[in-house]
Amino acid sequence: MFAKIRRLTGIISLSLVLFVSWSSLVFGTEKVNVCNQGDVEVFYASFGVRENFMSASAKIQGLFSIAPGNCRNVVPGGMSDVTVAFFYRDRSGTFGNTVFKVKGDEGSFRTKLSQICVNLEGFRANSTQDHLSLSEFIKIWTPPCLHGYFPAKTSFGVWGESNYIYTIDISPSQDTLIAPFPPLPENEIKTFDDGARHEGH
Q: Taking the domains of the chain in order of start, what are their residue ranges?
């Protein structure tokens, strides 16, 4: 009787180990902790993808805040690949899209998406819930954008990796002037005699 119980426990334990190992392969730990070392609040939108031998899915969401001195994981829940676009308001009051350069191994911070479509009012979409294939979802959320959404340049991404944790410091400054986002209509961009284009008043 006792021998059977011990053997059954062993089988259950082995099954649990196998399940945990398989789960780790399919649902790894992927984090990109972005830390705001600047003097201004930063907002971000992120596009995440997870592909495995069974399926492929994607999520896009934004905008979320990272206050000065704080860090936040920018990978959408359940995703492994990610690309991120950042925004902040400069000292003049202009809200814009900015690109942060990441120092380090360039191969680790590559992305297939140089731009994603963003709405400043807040948005969230999921390929599974929308019954879209990965390619269909990417097509919708990259330029040309749907009405009410605008193309935002991405800063970096982590693509094609699994089971990673990165911490990335960014240093936005209110003194760095940025172009407005969404972009101004063409009739509000003035061209002067020197050929330069000036946005705003």
A: 28-182
- The tokens of 44 are what? 């971000």
Distance CA 31, CA 20 (A): 19
Residues contacting residue 141 through CB under 8 Å, at least 6 positions apart: 47, 60, 116, 117, 125
What tens digit of pLDDT does each residue of 83-97 get? 999 999 999 999 999
Only one residue has tokens 């180990």, namely 17
Q: How many other CB atoms are there within 10 angstroms of residue 36's CB atom? A: 23
Residue with tokens 């829940």: 77
| Buried residues in 158-170 as b, exposed as e (16+ CB within 10 A) | bbeebeeebebeb
The 3-class secondary structure across 42-67, one letter per residue, is: EEEEEEEEEECCCCEEEEEEEEEEEC
pLDDT for 125-146, tens place per residue?
999 888 999 999 999 999 999 9
The type of residue at 107 is G
